[in-house]
Amino acid sequence: MSRTVRVQREDFDVADEIEALTYGTRDVGAVTAFVGLCRDEGGRLSGLELEHYPGMAEAEIDRVVAEAEARWPLLGATVIHRYGLIPPGGQIVLVAVTSSHRAAAFAATDFLMDFLKTRAPFWKREHLVNGTLGPWIEAATEDDQAATRWSGG
Amino acid sequence: MSRTVRVQREDFDVADEIEALTYGTRDVGAVTAFVGLCRDEGGRLSGLELEHYPGMAEAEIDRVVAEAEARWPLLGATVIHRYGLIPPGGQIVLVAVTSSHRAAAFAATDFLMDFLKTRAPFWKREHLVNGTLGPWIEAATEDDQAATRWSGG
Amino acid sequence: MKLVYFAWLRERVGKPDEEIDLPADVSTVADLIAWLKGRDERYEHAFENTDVIRAAIDHVHVKAHAALAGAREIAFFPPMTGG
Amino acid sequence: MKLVYFAWLRERVGKPDEEIDLPADVSTVADLIAWLKGRDERYEHAFENTDVIRAAIDHVHVKAHAALAGAREIAFFPPMTGG
């Protein structure tokens, strides 16, 4: 199991990350990748600023990935979460998972995204096209509900 | 909505396909990509040969993508399915979907893979490391069951 | 009318495609399968287990009771294993 | 003991972090919040709605009843909105 967790200001290259997860492997049957991008919300935003808690962000993502590894037979997992100011169209987060089979890769990716949203210490703030600072984005209750799908059962 | 469906012998580049789906967009919030790779099944296989029904393969994938578009608010979808002999580690299929939101992108990708497996006219045959031709792979009943998840409700 | 075969069905029939003149009393996919099975041992072997035979008319999946009228190309193949 | 604040909580408190000497009768996260609210209006405003305050001790999420004993760094922040 290869595990990569990075919290960084710089952009990332999805192809490079998938290549790193699959290079030389012969047992990977499924790669699932999710990329979250900054939307302009109908032209209203000039970007999103992401604040994070250095140290805890990495540690918490690492714990979430460890939980995914315990639940599904994964061969590799890469999570990259950016911070700083990200323009519309810019990449915010990558979750990429490899497994022998599709169902595990899919479920783990979905799980990781749910828990990144509710547990990883990042906070988004809107930057408006008129040059002013918009509000901090409020946590969506649907994100909490999505995360509770995985408990019990 | 941008829709790309290709059935080809040549390999594909995941990064190029994601770039094509997201370039210049400002409303895409989520990109989900699934790549199916050839496994060597514990060193038993030298590759998988994929036979397809030319003409119907493209048409059927196109119909499945149209159904996904009707079910979820997608911004783009790309499906590429290869045929011919594919070595272990080689890419077989790509499904990439863009949407404003994650849930739609995830669900549509899962749906597309379920229906590609049960409806797209492709057949896999094993090539063994000892140089002989192995059996045609039998359809998994779990694939049919996965596809029935989407009916009714 | 053109018939096309894929995967092990193609191998058992021994050819990828063929042109046939449809007898007047063959009107559905099931009729066609029954008629083909009566032609010789190759077809009888190829179509012995109809549970695992899938059919398409002009590139669209159909059931056994589908009518052949107007069809240009009928395809027979095992359950799909792509993806 | 070090306290750190993030997002609008940091803005309301007016600083990203601070060192405090914990009073003897402050033993849980909830106690600490109550004590901070009593310091001045900035803290009172920052912590006015405890339903939307999350806390972590040494980089691990904790509930309001968590004990502070042995903690090096206590963090307060709004619900997360990453991903």
Question: Helices and strands in order, then pairings?
Answer:
The complex is a heterotetramer, with 2 copies of chain A (153 residues) and 2 copies of chain C (83 residues).
Chain A lengths: L1 E7 L5 H9 L7 E8 L7 E8 L3 H16 L2 E9 L1 E3 L4 E9 L2 H18 L2 E7 L4 E4 L4 H8 L5
Parallel strand pairs in A: 1-4
Antiparallel strand pairs in A: 2-6, 3-5, 3-7, 4-6, 7-8
Chain C lengths: L1 E4 L1 H7 L3 E3 L9 H9 L3 H6 L7 E4 L2 E3 L10 E5 L6
Parallel strand pairs in C: 1-5
Antiparallel strand pairs in C: 1-2, 3-4, 3-5
Compact summary:
The complex is a heterotetramer, with 2 copies of chain A (153 residues) and 2 copies of chain C (83 residues). Chain A is α+β, with helices and mostly antiparallel strands and 153 residues long. Chain A has helices at residues 14-22, 56-71, 102-119, 141-148; strands at 2-8, 30-37, 45-52, 74-82, 84-86, 91-99, 122-128, 133-136.
Oligomeric nature of the chains:
heterotetramer
> What does the overall shape of chain C look like?
globular
**What amount of the residues of chain C lies in strands?**
15-25%
- Count of individual beta strands of chain C: 5
| Number of helices in the DSSP assignment of chain C | 3
**Strand-residue fraction of chain A?**
35-45%
Output the CATH topology of chain C: Ubiquitin-like (UB roll)
